[in-house]
Amino acid sequence: MSHIESFGVRNLRSFGSKKQLIPIKKINIFVGKNSCGKSTFLRTYPLLRQSVESNTRSPILWYGAFVDFGDLSTATHDGAEEIFFDFKSVLDFDRSHPERIIVQDYNVRHDPQRLSDSVTFATDISIGLKNHNTQVVSSSVIRIHNTEIVIKYTTTEKLEVTTRQYLWGVDDEECGVAVDEHTYSDLIMLTKSSLIPTRIYGTREAKDASDRLVRYLDEKAIPTAATKNLVSFLKPFASNSSKTIGQKVEDLYINSPDVLMSDLKKIFRNDKKFQESLLSSGEFIAETCFYHLIIKNLEKILEAADASFKKLFSGVRYLGPLRASAERFYRHQDLQVGEVDHKGENLPMVINSLDQRRKRQLSTWISEKFGFELELAATGLHYELKIKEDNDSKFHNISDMGFGYSQILPVIVSMWLELEATTDRYPRGFMPSHSRTLVIEQPELHLHPALQYKFGSALAQIASMSKSRDFRIVIETHSSQMIEAIGEGVRRNIITGDDINITLFEKNDNDCTDITLSGFDSEGYLTNWPAGFLSV
User: Fold this and answer.
1) What is the tens place of the pLDDT at every residue in 271-288?
2) 380 and 465 in contact (C-beta within 8 Å)?
3) Alpha carbon 127 to chain centroid, angstroms
4) Distance CA 434, CA 411 (A)
5) What is the pTM of this model?
6) Residue 484, Cα to own-chain centre: how many angstroms?
7) Do 75 and 43 form a contact (C-beta atoms < 8 A)?
8) What is the pairing mode between strands 372-379 and 396-397?
9) What is residue 68's DSSP assignment?
10) Predicted confidence band at 89 (pLDDT cuts at 50, 70, 90)?
11) Distance CA 431, CA 258 (A)
């Protein structure tokens, strides 16, 4: 299934031009001193959520319902011209559809005679934005094996697509030698979709019934050009005519170069010259066929990439650092609310939307994980949130229980709602297809260290209860107790160290953010952890 494995930012606020990707795992912990960039990176999750959910011409909505980054100019790092969002993804295609492209993973050996219905490939995607002549110029760079695709566009819907084939494949550090380059101009973007264009059309001129010259949209402009370029490339290696070669390549599906080699042998099995060409230059021929077939199927690649953005970021649930203070009474509102907002202001409405069975389940779960019970009591046209601690005999209004409870309750209820969405709401054996990522800033605010430890323990248990890879928790914290509790969860085999990523954020001598990846070994001990990192 298509998914994003890691992502990073460049030239965003304190981040410099160095490419730094952060893995996405079940539990993701960001730590570091104040003003070192960890909040900036954490807030890219809700930033990208409000971007994929909004109908904007530019990929990023800098100011929205969840976070406010100002605008492109204020979000750009001092001295930089362009902000980049970088993604390492795995894209999946279904072979059962006759028009789907077929791509094999280069890192796995395959039997060329047997192809699975679903095949995948790795891709790197970068989305860049910069100001130019009062307009935002956006660029989407897609790299697959030896192929690079650059899509540039502005808010005027005009696009330009440049494709390049590299001799040794595309690498983050060195791109090798470009042996082929094509530029497609005068293109039109009909829709941005989530973060990148997915429907790119060319234009062509033709005469209508009144013999007038009219320009039409041509959805096959790039596929037609790519097929023509592929035929032109193959012609010197074959004895067939261009027309015959064109008919044969229609049966050529995109695949890894080694499998393409086998397919070419079959398709051109009666062409002696081509068979000899494969013996002498087969690797180059297969690599170049791969390049042209990727371009031919550009729209499907864009759709798959954009779907991976939508899947991850539309499922983000964000809770900011300063959550709403508790009130003694809340006015009754007859609304069904299924998501706690980023300030926790609608928490009573969310709880009131639950039926009695689920309210009991929520209270029981909170008692088991955190040591207190929760009750929503109705008093006429109002209701009140009440808390009962384990050592107490009765419930008390939350406003009388200390500020910490009002701050942690929206977080706890959000965790339960998202966990329940993957376990309780669906029949046994059925898992929802949507992705969920719970993003929390400083959940330990105003919590006693003992409750911080309980919260960390609950994180480990919650992550272990979710069998789906599409349920994740992202937190920014200064709490060593929380990290210690998660490590204890690894030691007790509640969760594995492979499911946890800890990212350390620090400023370098140039006042730019550098990251270091840490985590837990199989025994729950921190790895690659600087001595005294969270100490005074």
Assistant:
1) 999 999 999 999 999 999
2) no
3) 12
4) 20
5) 0.89
6) 28
7) no
8) unpaired
9) B
10) very high
11) 36
